[in-house]
Amino acid sequence: MTITVETETEVDFPFDYEELARRVITFTTDHENFPFEAEVNLLLVDNEAIHRINREYRQIDRPTDVLSFPLLSYEEAGNFDAVEDCDDNFNPDTGEVMLGDIIISVDKVKEQAEAYGHSEMREFAFLIVHSMLHLFGYDHMEPEEAAFMENKQKQILKELNILR
C-alpha cells in the first residue's frame, strides 16, 4: 500500500501524525476487505487552503474539516467487484488501485477536538476514517446512509482503540 502524506501548513500535533495516518488508512482498508493494493494521498492544510479548495471544487464558501476526492465509482458502497473491470483504476507504474485524495484542515482538527472534548489524535483519526469510507463509496446525504456510516466509523475507531 502506498500512502503519501504531505503538508502545506505547520503540523504540531502531540503525536506522530504520519504513523497514525498510515495505521488508520491501512486498518480501514483491511476492515472494509478492500481486495487490492491501494494508493491514498493525504494532504494537511490550514483553514484558508481548505476554504479555497471548497470554494473552487464544491462551491462552498467556508472552511470544512475534511475533503474526500474518490477516484473510483461504485454501483454500491463497499462493493469492490467492478474495480478490476477498468484499467484506469490502477496506477500503471505500481499496479495499485488509486483510491483517491484526502485533505484535512489541521486548524479544524484542533478546533473540533477542543469543541467535542476529545484529543486531537482522536479527531484526526476520525476524519481519516470518515474520508476513507467516502473513498469506498459511502455517503451521509440520507439519514439511513448517515446512520450506517456513523456506525462503521465508531466500529473502526473502537477496533483501533482510538476512543473519545
Please give a structural write-up.
It is a single chain. By secondary structure, the chain is an alpha/beta fold. The protein has a single domain, classed as Collagenase (Catalytic Domain) (3-Layer(aba) Sandwich), CATH 3.40.390.30. The protein has helices at residues 17-31, 47-58, 106-116, 120-135, 143-159, and strands spanning 2-7, 38-45, 66-70, 97-105. It has a four-stranded mixed sheet with strand order 1-2-4-3. Helix 1 packs across helix 4 (120-135) and helix 3 crosses helix 4. The mean pLDDT is 95.
How is this structure best summarized?
The protein is α/β, with parallel strands linked by helices and 164 residues long. The chain is built from 5 helices and 4 strands; from the N terminus they run E-H-E-H-E-E-H-H-H.
Attribute tags:
single chain, 164 residues, alpha/beta, Collagenase (Catalytic Domain), 4 strands, MetalPrtase_cat_dom_sf_prd, cytoplasm, metal-binding, Endoribonuclease YbeY, EC 3.1.-.-
